[in-house]
Amino acid sequence: MRRPLRLAVAAAAILAIGLSATVDAAATRITDGSEAIVAAPSAGTIKLTKVTGGLSKPVFVTSARDGTGRLFIVEQTGRIRIWSGSSLLTTPFLNLAASVSKGGEQGLLGLAFHPGFTTNRKFYVNYTNLSGDTLVREYRASATNPNRVQSGSGRTIIKIDQPYANHNGGMIGFGPDGYLYIGMGDGGSAGDPGNRAQNKDSLLGKMLRINVNGTTSTRNYLIPSSNPYVGKAGRNEIWQRGLRNPWRWSFDRRTGNLWIGDVGQGRYEEVDRAVRTSSGAGKGANWGWRVMEGAHCYRPSSGCDRSGKRLPVVEYSHASNGRCAVTGGYVYRGSAIPAMAGWYVYGDYCSGEIFTISASAPTPANATRLLDTSLLISSFGENASGELFVTDLGGNLYRIDAG
């Protein structure tokens, strides 16, 4: 079985060099009604600048978009650290090290700040507890010390049982609609033995959407009435299904389109794109797992039923460079690298490569390799102005700059 945070592959994976013939750097010109992309960025368009080291298995970095310029770095081992803009603060923003399960794909995995954080100070974390189950919990930043959590503020929003230790997903984030999205893996083992990703009565292998701005007598969240299974057979929290392990995903801050890096089984990695419409980005979409791995039949291995399944915007195989696990990224909306404007940036955890495709590309799209690194790329992240960062599971944080 493969894991997006698999340490055992590190030494071998980062030594491989070379570009698969499946990656095409051909220039494109595509218009989606909001922007025109003239030519693909080329290798050398970007470089990585080290921001800080000394981190313990960093798996995510983000901004509260509160005007402070701070970056919040999630350590898989259970802490959230703060980069002040000039230094890494010694005292953690939040320390859950005694509450999270550790090893493999478990741990503290996700962080999202409430859209109203500047006034309500609320933020949310996703982690696996000491029993290995997923918890999404709400906390508040201190009113007197913005670099610390308010003591006693934590409460559980949702708990999801995990049958195995891997494929936990972990990414959480607020969409342009103000709802909290939760990416859930299929529950683990290999091959989704319980077919949970397709099961509408299971929260595993899904993208969930909930409203954290309210409670009921039995839940610490509300169900958006426009969720696809409200009033129908299936769990009301489900927004999309058919995902294997959506380790990292994001919303394009300009268009609201949803981009998902879904880790594959043994042969193909995929990036999914859901275009935002009046009903939301990809309402009710079925991304195909375990019937399909990428655009290919998985179970059965041929002649599978593709009806109702959405194809990835881009996929790649494990045939070259030690590639093994996609790390989803972001559509670049910063200003420091004009050549990257409107291009989606993603990578592979094992090979350390960073790729890009046009945010407006047709399906299937061609990808350009921008950089080949020796990093264990665990995540990408954005600051308040849309500049991109990379976390290296080995303990470092990098900024993506113009090459």
Describe the structure.
With 403 residues, the chain is mainly β. The chain has two helices and 30 strands. Strands 3-30-29-28 form a four-stranded antiparallel β-sheet, with no helix packed on it. Strands 4-5-6-7 form a four-stranded antiparallel β-sheet, with no helix packed on it. The model is unreliable at 1-34 (pLDDT under 50).
The tally of helices reads: 2
Domains (count)? 1
- Quote the distance from N terminus to C terminus: 36 Å
Q: Structural class per helix/strand content?
A: mainly beta
CATH superfamily: TolB, C-terminal domain
CATH architecture label name: 6 Propeller
**Low-confidence region ranges:** 1-34
Proportion of residues in helical segments: under 10%
Shape: globular
Q: What's the average pLDDT?
A: 92
Strand order of the largest sheet: 3-30-29-28
How large is the radius of gyration?
20 Å
Largest sheet: 4 strands, antiparallel
**Got a strand count?**
30
* Relative strand content: 25-35%
CATH class group? Mainly Beta
CATH topology: Neuraminidase
